[in-house]
Amino acid sequence: MAKKIAGTMKLQVPAGKANPSPPVGPALGQRGINIMEFCKAFNAKTQDLEPGAPCPTVITYYQDKSFTMDIKTPPASYFLKKAAKITSGAKTPSRETVGTVSAKQVREIAEAKMKDLNANDIDAAMQIIMGSARSMGIEVK
């Protein structure tokens, strides 16, 4: 018999840096999830990622207090900011450009994000990443 799902929640946790302090601890605690168990499992799964990269995580928790987690790739904006070597996007993206990325960098980001993107091929994935870049005020050369 399948376990009864009590609910799901989404958290964005830095890779390898899950700890019981807020915001992670209280969010898990109020749903009855073992906080230390989550932190250990999350940190073990993300140790091969770049430390501190924000990882959107979907946690499905069950009535017997157990849980499963699905860790997604860091957001496209994180990769774009790193590639363009900037700290934040443009305040008025349509009017100002804050940085540039090459088509090669866009392709690398698209390949890294492919499993989480709603795209059938690498060209469609590149279009999605280029759209994200445009909305952040980053020019694609």
Describe the structure.
With 141 residues, this protein is of the alpha+beta class. The protein has five helices and five strands, in the order βααββαβααβ. It has helices at 24-29, 35-45, 76-84, 103-113, 122-136; strands at 5-14, 54-62, 67-71, 99-101, 138-140. It has a three-stranded antiparallel sheet with strand order 1-2-3, with helices on one face. A two-stranded parallel ribbon has the order 4-5. The chain starts with a strand and ends with a strand. The relative contact order is 0.15.
Q: Which keywords apply here?
A:
5 helices; 3-stranded antiparallel beta sheet; alpha+beta; elongated; two-stranded parallel ribbon; 141 residues
Taking pLDDT < 50 over at least 5 consecutive residues as the criterion, the unreliable ranges are none
As a percent range, the share of helical residues equals 25-40%
* Residue-averaged pLDDT: 76
Across the major sheet, the strand order is: 1-2-3
- Helices and strands, in order, run as EHHEEHEHHE
**Major sheet size, sense and barrel closure:** 3 strands, antiparallel
Number of strands: 5
| Global outline | elongated
* Amino- and carboxy-terminal Cα gap: 55 Å
The Rg value, from CA coordinates, equals 18 Å
Bin the strand percentage.
Answer: 15-25%
Protein structure class? alpha+beta
Number of helices: 5
